[in-house]
């Protein structure tokens, strides 16, 4: 029976003639309360004539509106397709194979699109697609939606039409041709056969033109050495899976050395199989990803590294060049002898920016007949020449360059003499910059042209000799007035074809009979691979020259590229700015890394403040006449004494939101394109505030978090000796912790049950999984201030631990000596010492996300049942239930839950991609964008697992092993993360769960996680 009762929203409704009643009757929402008029600040409030009665009445009238707002979301009108495209099914993702190369990063990709929007980067796993996406490539999807992109051409800083631009450039080219003026195309390395052919045609049409290739981070010395020895300007593509002994002298091959992409091959040899694994020696200055993974790491200056390289050359080839290694002689000799003993199963690499050093690398690997070193399938991703770039600047200063056309480069930022370049640019008759952004070079050029993102473009690439990859657009250009560089060049060459037709016609000579459509579908084609031969080099002369190397006067500065920022092209990308560096765990900054010894000498310090934030000293740096002021300092365990490190890619100002204008521009110290400089350091006033996500540096003897052993123990003892199971007391008898439980277990053998396996031997800390998780799960960016307050929202973190002794085994011994908490020095004395990392520590990386415990402590304390467990092993979050008590976070032993302190979407306080319409195009519609006041965490990508189940159900088939994936497992190129169904006894994850190396994190707590780890084995 219906009720006839009448309810009033406020007392004002009793007044029939009230205008407010009419407003409530006709409008769903009343006007917002202008509280800022009388509650804006204390002064305004005290001066207000509003009485207490008026205030309460005013708020009372608006109660109806507030309740309506709480129940009804804002209306967003969607316009349906008039004619729906056949290939687009709303709610179903499409995938496009493509290949990216931006002059620095490269990968073979699958791009996930939803309703025409690219939203996620995946790895292309087809045969022949050998390069996986790193963290920066995964983040590049967000750079597509950068609202500060250059959207239309400009002449002298003012918006212009394309006809005006074309007219001006063609007139300049004609004038240069008539006067014999020099025309220069300045580009990054292109690695594109069709683009290089097009440039050759442009030069043929303009006889005074030439092409200069400029790589911001130079590999010119290695290129020069290979060209001398083999007659080809290329880099060796090493295969570390074929190496039993790896010796690296200053090469971070798990980072950005030679473009990176070596981690997959390396990891294959690092997982112990049949009692064997590779042995890795690392000689370096900065603590790098490669040094962190090494079995034996020796910190030394670059001058000592050069001596070490000559010593290895002597031992491997039998030469007798005099060197003086001092205290490092024994370590270098041991590594060289083991390298020589390995023969063809050994390989040596070096990152020293010196042609002589790179010649010795070729000589040593040839003497070994190394299988990991091959001159076939060379890398084509670096072609720059330091000499030619320097000559161009000199020509510009002399006024002999008539027209300069630049694409893919930003020399006004990245050249060490960038001011000199900008001044010389004024002497060029016409300068043109083709760029994604109105960057430093575009601002000082006569004409700035906005170009397309690689996800809006057609292109071809030959990343390695003998392979042919295609870049295809996944969306129409977001800005109609932007044009691809190749289309622009075609127009200026007088060719009326568009680049797609030009590319398709040109591709036939590279496809070897394969159809165009197949290569577009697959993304890559592998043809015949030739071996580079010929050429000669004076290896003995190179060794003698290198042996004369001396230590730098004063401290040695080692410039490097950070895992998150690279060469700085994506400084506008908030995902990368907030990405914590794998080694220092600091985000939103670059900084000097310095050893504790040198820091003490200079009276530099790091310390923690009351809110947990990390602070550090400032220094001023001088390299020759170049100077950088107020550079913050991080005291870095493992930094070679006498050296400091500083990363490139920061300090950009142009075309960046204010929040992302962080750090200092280290390129100004990149003198003569050499990453090693002699530097003078002076302490500056003030302290810097870092955003560091991990303040505990060591394990402090907690050997159950990172379990590790040596290869010898692994091979000679039972698993119970090196994978120790925690014991508890039951009825006064010791039993395994895993056999005791407070809860009755459910039968989980029916249906799917998901586990994620993480192998600590294969994890390199690269962070690709972190960015992939951001993209897949709409993880918000919170900014430096919030990260500093420990409010970062990363669903997946990669903990990095140092040993407080020289080894983690030494830590355990020291802990036993302290007799727990009651040693002679007391708890603070004993464990206080263990909080300090060794000067040359061992390093371990451990990815940690929600462990999806079968007996989850978070679930029992939630007062509103917002978090619960599924039969499939996933710990669920019902955001609408969550009221933000944070009991679950308090009860989680893994500390993997994140609390939304603020609304990060559509909030100008967090002015990143979620605050503008363009940036929000990257959001995944399958994952809810969380609001303020709720807990969030890793969901084990339930949207992905459910889609796999539904697809198989629709097709009426069984799910194959490997189909189930999470964002992190799909992004992991080293194979460290394997996801799957443990109820499928034939699955890889089921075998990994049964492996002797398997353990759970904090097993003694009894949470029974569905994330499993594998004991780290070191070949020491």
UniProtKB/TrEMBL annotation:
Domain of life: Bacteria
Cross-referenced InterPro entries: 4Fe4S_Fe-S-bd (IPR017896), TAT_var_transloc_signal_dom (IPR030948)
Residues annotated as signal peptide: none
Gene3D superfamilies reported in the protein's UniProt record: 3.30.70.20, 3.40.50.740, Formate dehydrogenase/DMSO reductase (3.30.2070.10)
Domain 4Fe-4S ferredoxin-type: 754-784, 841-872, 873-902
Pfam families: Fer4_11
Record protein name field: Molybdopterin-containing oxidoreductase family iron-sulfur binding subunit
Organism from which the protein derives: Flavobacterium arsenatis
């Amino acid at each position: 029976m219906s009720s006839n009762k009448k309810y009033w929203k406020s007392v004002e409704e009793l007044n029939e003639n009230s205008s407010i009643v009419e407003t409530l009757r006709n409008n769903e929402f009343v006007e917002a309360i202008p509280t800022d008029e009388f509650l804006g600040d204390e002064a305004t409030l005290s001066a207000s004539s509003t009485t207490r009665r008026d205030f309460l009445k005013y708020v009372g009238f608006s109660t109806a509106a507030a309740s309506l707002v709480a129940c009804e979301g804002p209306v967003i009108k969607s316009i349906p397709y008039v004619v729906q495209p056949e290939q687009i099914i709303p709610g179903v993702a499409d995938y496009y194979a493509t290949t990216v190369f931006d002059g620095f990063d490269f990968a073979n990709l699958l791009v996930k699109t939803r309703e025409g929007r690219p939203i996620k980067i995946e790895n292309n796993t087809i045969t022949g697609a050998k390069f996986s996406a790193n963290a920066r490539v995964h983040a590049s999807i967000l750079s597509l939606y950068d609202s500060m992109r250059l959207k239309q051409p400009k002449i002298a800083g003012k918006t212009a039409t394309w006809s005006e631009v074309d007219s001006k450039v063609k007139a300049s080219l004609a004038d240069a041709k008539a006067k014999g003026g020099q025309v220069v195309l300045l580009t990054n390395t292109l690695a594109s056969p069709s683009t290089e052919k097009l440039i050759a045609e442009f030069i043929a049409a303009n006889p005074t033109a030439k092409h200069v290739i400029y790589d911001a981070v130079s590999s010119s010395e290695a290129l020069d050495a290979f060209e001398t020895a083999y007659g080809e300007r290329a880099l060796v593509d090493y295969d570390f899976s074929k190496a039993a002994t790896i010796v690296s002298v200053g090469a971070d091959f798990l980072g950005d050395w030679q473009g990176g992409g070596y981690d997959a091959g390396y990891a294959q040899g690092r997982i112990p199989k049949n009692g064997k694994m590779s042995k890795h020696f690392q000689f370096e200055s900065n603590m790098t990803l490669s040094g962190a993974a090494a079995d034996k790491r020796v910190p030394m200056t670059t001058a000592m590294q050069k001596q070490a390289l000559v010593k290895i050359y002597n031992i491997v080839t039998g030469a007798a060049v005099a060197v003086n290694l001092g205290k490092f002689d024994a370590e270098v000799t041991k590594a060289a002898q083991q390298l020589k003993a390995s023969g063809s199963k050994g390989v040596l690499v070096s990152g020293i920016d010196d042609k002589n050093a790179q010649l010795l690398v070729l000589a040593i690997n040839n003497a070994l007949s190394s299988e990991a070193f091959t001159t076939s399938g060379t890398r084509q991703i670096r072609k720059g020449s330091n000499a030619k770039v320097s000559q161009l600047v000199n020509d510009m200063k002399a006024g002999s360059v008539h027209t300069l056309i630049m694409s893919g480069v930003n020399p006004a930022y990245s050249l060490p003499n960038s001011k000199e370049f900008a001044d010389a640019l004024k002497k060029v008759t016409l300068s043109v910059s083709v760029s994604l952004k109105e960057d430093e070079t575009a601002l000082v050029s006569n004409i700035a042209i906005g170009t397309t993102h690689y996800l809006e473009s057609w292109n071809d690439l030959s990343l390695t000799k003998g392979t042919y990859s295609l870049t295809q657009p996944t969306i129409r250009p977001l800005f109609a007035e932007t044009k691809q560089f190749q289309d622009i060049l075609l127009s200026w060459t007088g060719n009326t074809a568009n680049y797609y037709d030009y590319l398709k016609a040109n591709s036939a000579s590279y496809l070897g009979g394969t159809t165009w459509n197949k290569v577009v579908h697959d993304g890559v084609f592998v043809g015949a691979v030739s071996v580079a031969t010929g050429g000669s080099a004076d290896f003995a002369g190179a060794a003698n020259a290198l042996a004369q190397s001396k230590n730098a006067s004063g401290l040695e500065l080692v410039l490097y590229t950070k895992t998150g920022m690279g060469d700085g092209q994506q400084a506008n990308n908030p995902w990368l700015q907030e990405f914590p560096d794998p080694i220092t765990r600091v985000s939103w900054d670059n900084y000097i890394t310095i050893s504790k010894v040198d820091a003490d000498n200079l009276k530099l310090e790091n310390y923690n403040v009351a809110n947990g934030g990390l602070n550090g000293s400032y220094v001023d740096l001088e390299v020759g006449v170049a100077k950088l002021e107020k550079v913050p300092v991080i005291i870095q365990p493992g930094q070679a004494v006498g050296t400091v490190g500083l990363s490139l890619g920061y300090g950009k100002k142009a075309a960046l939101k204010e929040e992302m204008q962080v750090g200092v521009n280290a390129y100004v110290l990149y003198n003569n394109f050499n990453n090693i400089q002699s530097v003078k350091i002076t302490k500056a006033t003030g302290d810097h505030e870092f955003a560091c996500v991990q303040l505990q540096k060591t394990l402090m003897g907690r050997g159950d978090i990172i379990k590790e052993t040596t290869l010898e123990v692994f091979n000679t003892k039972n698993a119970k000796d090196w994978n120790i199971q925690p014991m508890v007391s039951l009825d006064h008898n010791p039993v395994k912790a895993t056999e005791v439980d407070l809860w009755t277990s459910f039968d989980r053998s029916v249906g799917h049950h998901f586990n994620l396996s993480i192998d600590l031997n294969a994890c390199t800390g690269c962070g690709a999984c972190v960015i992939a998780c951001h993209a897949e799960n709409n993880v918000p960016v919170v900014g430096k201030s919030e990260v500093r307050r420990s409010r970062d929202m990363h669903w997946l973190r990669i903990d990095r631990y140092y040993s407080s002794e020289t080894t983690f085994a030494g830590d355990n011994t020291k802990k036993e000596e302290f007799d727990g908490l009651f040693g002679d020095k007391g708890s603070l004395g004993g464990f206080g010492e263990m909080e300090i990392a060794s000067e040359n520590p061992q390093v371990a990386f451990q990815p940690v996300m929600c462990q999806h415990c079968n007996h989850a402590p978070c679930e029992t304390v939630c007062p509103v049942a917002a978090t619960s467990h599924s039969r499939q092993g996933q710990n669920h979050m019902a955001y609408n239930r969550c009221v933000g008590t944070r009991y679950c976070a308090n009860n989680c032993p893994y500390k993997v839950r994140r609390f939304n302190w603020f609304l990060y979407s559509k909030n100008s306080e967090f002015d990143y991609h979620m605050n503008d319409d363009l940036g929000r195009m990257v959001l995944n519609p399958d994952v809810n964008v969380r609001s303020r006041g709720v807990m969030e965490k890793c969901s084990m990508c339930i949207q992905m697992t459910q889609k796999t189940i539904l697809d198989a159900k629709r097709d009426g088939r069984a799910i194959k092993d490997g189909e189930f994936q999470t964002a992190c497992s799909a992004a992991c190129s080293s194979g460290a993360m394997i996801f799957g169904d443990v109820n499928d006894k034939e699955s890889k994850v089921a075998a990994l769960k049964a492996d002797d190396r398997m353990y759970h994190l904090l097993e003694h707590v009894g949470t029974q996680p569905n994330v499993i780890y594998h004991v780290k084995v070191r070949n020491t």
